Amino acid sequence: MVSATGVRALIDERGAEFEGYTFGFLDDMAKREIRRTILKAVAIPGHQVPFGSREMPIARGWGTGGLQITLACVGADDTIKVIDQGDDASVNAVNLRRLIAKTTGARETLTTGEATLIQSRHRIPEERMTAAQILILQVPIPEPLRHVERSVASARAMHAEADYARMWLALYEDVVRNGEVTAGAGYPVMVNGRFVMAPSPIPRWDIPKLNQADTLFLFGAGREKRIYAVPPFTNVQPLEFDDYPFEIEAFPNMSCRRCGATDSYLVTSPQADGGTLSVCSDTSYCDDVLAGRKVENQW
Amino acid sequence: MGYSSVRGGMDAIEHAEALIAAQVTDSDHPVALPQVTDHVELLLDQVMGEGGVYDLDLGALAVKQAEGDPIEAGFLLRAYRTTLPRVGYSFPSSGRQMRILRRVSSAFRDIPGGQVLGRTRDYTQRLLDFALRDTPPKTLAPAGDLDALPSGAAPEEFPLVIDTLRADGLMHEAPRRTSDDEPFDVTREPLRFPSTRAARLQVLARGETGAMLSLAYAGMRGYGGAHGYIAELRYGDLPVQISHPITGGPVRIGWVPVTECYQVVGGDEGAQHTHDGTEDHEHVQGENPEYVVSYGIVVGRNERKAISMSILDGSLKKTTKSGAAIEDEEYVMYHIDSIEAMGFVEHLKLPHYVDFVASVHRTSKVRELVAAARRG
């Protein structure tokens, strides 16, 4: 939060660049509504709370849900980090970060440990986040039941009744057809033993990090107009069968070509010579390992 | 290295912005905003309607800045609109108060007040007019003069054609307004289903012209639509009246041009519609069949969208559903919004390599299982 005098000071300090914007772009009524929605979401872990998602100056589907949460939470004394696929320098991450910084004066960082708010698309940082940090995940499809029930109204009723039979059936059919649950990114999870939740398209690698974390996770779907949350120290379990246990991605005999890490999620790029190049998707973690800094990455 | 993994995204963005700016301004004949308002009026109307802002200057600016892309221009208007406070609500306007510039009926040969063909391309021959290539300035009379009806030739207020049907008992009475509550505002509240009538009409009125045309066309070809009768298609200005801050009485603060379409559906088709889109007036077997209005209203001149809207409204009002997508409220209301559709479809341009790695891992796992099974 920032006081009125704080906004005045920001305008004085930053001049024309800040003038013409409300602090944090959103009007105060919108921020109030989003904060109330977040409070409700935290109170009912994993439950999707509808909100009056505003039209934003970036495209729908490009992080408007995460952005509205960030702008409703950020204060002038916050330090923000924005990553896309783990990367701070990705063009959309840069674009979001400069919009947040321009309209709030918040400090920017590329380092996971320095950030108070991290907005992310499709990754949870490798470095274990603390209770003093919030991770805000951008969500394309908030409804985990969408592929078994396309009607939003019907899916809402299924959640209310904790009727997840069709979800389990779909997983079972997947096993029958393919011998495996084939869901990769965005693996469905059960939150607090009550709500099935879409964790956003994070890889399986990141799913265990949601369970009993120190950190508050907020999920924002701007186009679909839903906010939901996983509060700290909440049980989050992937949907699995006893005889088909959930497993994360494995990178046997592989390491990051840049920093040499063997304990991070690697992304691969084809090379002109026909080979592949594997590097850490989390660029902050990669920088830390390269610089020889000690990072707590055990979630 | 790809565009996402390269360090220096900021540099790339700034160069992209410079290229865009150059495209908009670098020309021997830069576009002045009055050229947009005078000569690209239909595009401007579409942009203002889908952007949800009626402002000629802002709309022209958006069209220019977006290089004429109607969806991008509408997006610019919406992102601006969202920062504006809502200062109040106008009184409801009736089509009866419209200052008519065009008015046709296909259900009747003659209608009270008369048909007014007005400005339409419907009966022109679509031949490129090469004389327009080098139009000297000021050879065209100001359009406003041509539009104006001869004074005294037409009544002040035109009745609605559907009033005739109502008087004859062929159509349900207009639903009475049940409260003076603030209308549901789709820009401030998330949609819930079944939606309210106000929400449905707002979403349809802001919908993308092409998307609505496509759905309406599919409906007419048999996918759940109704081929109704256009009782009246009209274009003109509707008064905007607000409450006077001191007297509290209505005071007109301006006019907004709109296209309105009243289509009648039902009748001998078994009155399978509700008259106001809610379920509580479901037709009971044995009752007299009657017609209901399928309604379309669009900012500016956009008859294509107004008719499409009325077809979609009629499909959504059906109580006897065929199971077609355009009878499904969620299907129609979620998918005709250009800004949301464009954003999500085009977000596929964003990097997805983290997800793709996850997908490839699962695919490899299943391939291993298949190979193991084949080995026995």
Number of helices of chain B: 13
Proper CATH architecture of the domain at 28-147 and 170-235 in chain A: 3-Layer(aba) Sandwich
Distance between the termini of chain B: 43 Å
Bin the strand percentage of chain A.
15-25%
**Helix and strand element order of chain B:** HHHHHEHHHHEEEHHHH
What would you report as the Rg of chain A, rounded to the nearest angstrom? Answer: 20 Å
Reading side by side through the largest sheet of chain B, how are the strands ordered? 1-2-3-4
Mean pLDDT of chain A: 92
**Number of DSSP-assigned strands of chain A:** 12
Order of strands, widest sheet of chain A:
1-9-8-5-4-2-3
Overall radius of gyration of chain B: 25 Å
The percent range for helix content of chain B is 25-40%
Structural class per helix/strand content of chain B? Answer: alpha+beta
Count of strand segments of chain B: 4
CATH homology superfamily of the domain at 28-147 and 170-235 in chain A: Bacterial phosphonate metabolism protein PhnH
Shape of chain A: globular
Kindly estimate the percentage of residues of chain B that lie in beta strands according to DSSP: 5-15%
Low-confidence blocks of residues of chain A: none
Largest sheet of chain A: 7 strands, mixed
Task: Tell me the domain tally of chain B.
Answer: 2
Fold-level CATH name of the domain at 28-147 and 170-235 in chain A:
Rossmann fold
